[in-house]
Amino acid sequence: MSYADIRTRNESAWLLEKNGALGHGLRHDMRRFDDDDEVDLVIVGCGAGGGTLMQRMARHGWKVVALDAGPFWDPEKDWVSDEAGSHKLYWTEPRQIGGSDPVPLGSNNSGRGVGGSMVHYAGYTPRFHPSDFETFTRDGVGADWPIDYDDLKPFYEHIEAELPVAGDDWPWGDSHTYPHRPHPVGGNGEIFQRGALAAGIEAHVGPVAIPNGRFGNRPHCIYRGFCLQGCKVNAKASPLITHVPDALAHGAEIRPDALVTRVEIDGRTGLATGVHYVKDGVSRFQRARMVAVAGYSIETPRLLLNSTSARFPEGLANDFDQVGRYLMVQGAPQTAGRFDSEIRMFKAPPPEVSSEQFYETDPSKPYKRGYSIQNISPMPITWAEHVMAQGHWGRDFRNYMSDYVHWATLGGLCELLPQADNRVTLADETDRTGTPVAHFAYSLCDNDRQLMDAATKTMETILEAAGADETITIQRYAHLVGGARMASDEQHGVVDGNCRTFAVPNLYITDGSVLPTQGSANPALTIMALTARVADHLATAGPTFG
Question: Which parts of the sequence belong to the Glucose-methanol-choline oxidoreductase N-terminal domain (predicted)?
Answer without folding.
Answer: 110-309
